[in-house]
Amino acid sequence: QLLSGDHFALFHAGDELDYQRFHRIAEEFDLDFAILGNGYEYRRASILKDMGKTVILPLAFPKTPRVEREDTALDISLEQLQHWELAPSNAAFLEKNGVSFCLSSHFLGDPAKEFWSALRKAIKRGLSAETALASLTTNPASLYAVSDQLGSIEAGKIANLVVSTGDLFADEKAKVALVWIDGDPAEKKPWEAPELTGEWSFAWQGVEAFEKGEFKTEGSKVSLKADDASISGTIDKREVLLFLPDTILGGEDESAVARLRADLTEGMLAGSGVLPSGERFAWSAKRVKGEGEDDEEEEEGEEEGDGEEESIPTLEFERYPAGAYGVSELEQPSAILVKDATIWTSGPDGVLQEADLLVRDGKVSKLGKNLRPPRGAVVIDAAGKHVTPGLIDCHSHIAGSRGVNEGASAISVEVRIGDIINPVDINIYRQLAGGLTTSNILHGSANPMGGQNQVIKLRWGDDAEGLKFKGAKPGVKFALGENVKQSNWGDNFTGRYPQTRMGVGQFMISNFRAAEDYERRWEDFNAGRTLMPPRKNLRMDATLEILKGERSVHIHSYRQDEILAFARLAGRFNLDVAAFQHILEGYKVADALVEIDAGGSSFSDWWAYKFEVYDAIPYNGALMHEAGVVVSYNSDDAELATRMNTEAAKAVKYGGLSEEVALKFVTLNPAIQLRVHDRVGSLEKGKDADFVIWNEHPLSTYAYAEQTWIDGVKRFDKIENRERFEADLKEREQLVQKALKARLKELKMATKSKKLDKEEEYGAPPGNDPNDPEWIYHDGMIHYSCSGLEEGGYHVH
User: Fold this and answer.
1) How far apart are CA 397 and CA 453, in angstroms?
2) Burial, 715: exposed, middle or buried (Cβ in 10 Å; 0-12, 13-18, 19+)?
3) CA–CA distance from 639 to each of 82, 494, 702, 753 (Å)?
4) What are the phi and psi torsion angles at 201 (to 5°)?
5) Residues 387, 691: contact at Cβ < 8 Å?
6) Partners of 203 in beta bridges
7) 168-200 b/e with 16+ CB inside 10 Å = b?
């Protein structure tokens, strides 16, 4: 029914990145769907607008950040502060962008207490009352296809009605008084009558009487004191009966009694009365204050003294990602000329001295000396500086959401890293600052046959789809060793096959044979030899891509025996092995890699961090290179990937390779392993304009990236980075001040009539007797007193 369109899917968005993921799934299966939101919709309002789907929007806003202490406030990020400020405007953002939504009490701790106050806050933040009403009536009726019965008050529709004591969208004191469902009154709590005790003001039509009175209740009995008279009555659920001496209403018979009846709602009485003469009249009353409450005027005065009016943020969210170093706009010049630099091409031209690099429309156009800039070109004086291709990391796990290991099954070739790319991972920006431009995001090593990888360009500021390296050959992660046998997982992980090295190899062979059989069954069906097609199997489809060489293999490996075993298996099935990853004993069996034309993506100098890497040596990369293996150095670590240039330099130190060859370990060679060397990895005419401008020799430990360009767009600039930092710091301090004012106001409200728990906010204080402290909030300060000192105790403010 879901696939046929009779039902719609409701996707629960865990974060702002899920919207496009849902859209891709729905497009693949032609699904109708709606989204249960998460409060971050304002960040992707334009995406939601383009999707044209209804969002069920929560009204649960983040609590005010606790910024009172300078040290703990440092743990609160700019992104968290921005969200605290903007979340109440979430609905207004969507209204402005024309996104259809329904409001929900989902995620509220106590909907009965919190829903209306949260909705009124959203209205104060820009949501119109008309759209708010539609989000609770016509929009949900339309979503669930019941608009012919519900959503509006029209003849013939179901009589579901709400009566309130005032404008629920604007009046803070307005409450729901009565509810009808299917035309029948629905008691909120029929066994509990609304509160009657307190002072009331009265209005009369047809008679004249007192203007104020005070009700008291005891069980079903009611007493009313007014004009020195004591009036009795009864209350039954919502009905109030009062019996007044006729003289109070202007009569002369002291023994005569007038009967009054009224319906009681929240803070309101409305009814009629009958005089002893039989004449009828109308009356009503409104509660002025409850028992023990202060006068309204005094309460209003206190509110006015609480501080300034809340400032409303503008309904704009132009930077992406949220938080630090967000990008507001990017420019792609039609032409760029980098002049007078030392250019490390990593290509046939080698290293060019005092040369120029010309870029047109995102591609390398020309290399040489004394090149003339085209009209309108951005000209960069790089005299004394060095230019290299953008660095490439062949093994990374950044920019993924909610885990990169699908460890429940030993084979998971059907899962895709591309489905969970996280463009807001700050590691993308940090690695740009280190000159990295392309990265291979791999599935983890929990499985012999793991998930599909995703090659990305570090286009900070783009969404998940914008990061993907379009045209890169598909790949998949395999693994050998301790991880896949689960020998280092602990005693509770002994039930998943395989558990031995021999089992790992046979497991792969069995799955390859199963895929071949799957293909034969499809061939039989397509040839008419069978009537029923095989059931669609994404795992087998991906395995067939591997067998046909359409999907390259990246295999986690360490020991020589396992490397040799898989090299022979790969030769047997003619697999395209892009790279043995880690391959710390590759120097022992480099000839086997050359035989199957496999690359080696190694650590530069990691060893002895677990048992199976005890034979690792830092000369591994140089020795494999000398044997004819295409070698790259990878990071496998978010921090290490910020300095891949100095990782490459280790091939000079350990092995004596030339500087040009060493640099290729993080430029051209990983591009070859990823099968994207026709696009990136070297500075050659026609290739993507991915390049880095360094302050000095790129293999120096003193070198840093001044600018990093991808496809002719500047994605990092050291000077602009400092400006961004200063602007973000200023914004953060402004938000901290705003949060501090709100927080102090909350503390005052929370502690106005009670002592503050000694450890609720600030932890146990010092003192002679910490077991007997007194915390008191008074006059804007927290006071602590402790007995035991000669002069009667001390105070900490």
Assistant:
1) 10
2) buried
3) 26, 33, 17, 51
4) -105, 145
5) yes
6) 284
7) bbeeeebeebbeeeeeeeeeeeeeebbebebbb
Residue 416 bridge partners (DSSP)? 452
Q: How far apart are CA 475 and CA 233, in angstroms?
A: 83
Beta strand 101-104 pairing with 55-58? parallel
Q: How many whole angstroms separate alpha carbon 231 and alpha carbon 262?
A: 15
Distance CA(167)–CA(619), nearest Å, equals 77
Distance CA 124, CA 89 (A): 9
The residue that leads in pLDDT, 329 or 797, is 329
Inter-residue long-range contacts of 653-661, CB under 8 Å, 24+ positions, other chains counted: 653/618, 654/604, 654/605, 654/618, 654/619, 654/621, 654/622, 655/619, 655/621, 655/622, 655/623, 655/625, 655/626, 656/622, 657/622, 657/625, 659/699, 660/344, 660/346, 660/350, 660/351, 661/625
Answer yes or no: are the C-beta atoms of 546 and 468 closer than 8 Å. Answer: no
Contact at 8 Å (CB) between 692 and 707? yes
Instruction: Note whether 45 and 16 are within 8 A (CB).
Output: no
Alpha-carbon distance of 153 to 759, in angstroms, equals: 52
> Distance from CA of residue 523 to its chain's centroid?
45
For strand 599-602 and strand 577-582, is the pairing parallel, antiparallel, or unpaired?
Answer: parallel
Joined together, the tokens standing for residue 152 give 């509006």
Tens of pLDDT, residues 208-260 = 999 999 998 887 888 999 988 888 999 887 789 998 888 888 888 878 888 99
Q: What is the rounded average pLDDT of the residues 52-72?
A: 93
- Can you state the angle between helices 501-526 and 560-573, rounded to 10 degrees? 10
d(CA 386, CA 267): 77
Q: Please state, in angstroms and rounded to a whole number, the distance separating the CA atoms of residues 119 and 113.
A: 11
The pair of structure tokens assigned to 388 is 């290299």
pLDDT in tens, 449-465: 999 999 999 999 999 99
Query: What is Dmax (Cα atoms) for the chain?
Result: 122
Order across the sheet with 55-58: list the strands.
Answer: 9-12, 33-36, 55-58, 101-104
Helix (H, G, I), strand (E, B) or coil at 379: strand
Q: Whole-model pTM? A: 0.82
Phi and psi, residue 223, nearest 5°: -130, 140
CB 399 within 8 A of CB 447: no
What is the band of 89 on the pLDDT scale with cuts at 50, 70, 90?
very high
* Amino acid letter for position 20: Q
What is d(CA 537, CA 511) in angstroms, rounded to the nearest whole number? 13
Kindly report the number of other CB atoms within 10 A of residue 254's CB atom.
Answer: 8
Calculate mean pLDDT across residues 668-689. Answer: 98
For residues 164 and 177, is the Cβ–Cβ distance under 8 A? yes
Cα 587 from Cα 591, distance rounded (Å)? 9
Do 553 and 476 meet the contact criterion of CB atoms below 8 Å apart? yes
**Percentages helix, strand, coil for the chain, rounded to the nearest 5?**
30, 25, 45
Query: What string of DSSP letters covers 433-469?
Result: TTTEEEEEE---SSSSEEEEPEEEE--BTB-HHHHB-
270-328 tens-digit pLDDT: 999 988 888 899 999 998 876 655 544 444 434 433 445 566 778 888 889 999 999 99
Nearest to 203, CA basis, from 256, 156, 153, 273:
273
The pair of structure tokens assigned to 790 is 């000669």
Six token digits for residue 745: 């106001």
599 φ/ψ angles, rounded to the nearest 5 degrees:
-85, 165
- What would the pLDDT profile of 350-395 be if each residue is shown by its tens digit? 999 999 999 999 999 999 999 999 999 999 999 999 999 999 999 9
Exposed e or buried b per residue across 392-428, where buried means at least 16 C-beta atoms within 10 angstroms of its C-beta: bbbbbbbbbbeebbbbeebbbbbbbbbebbbbbbbbb
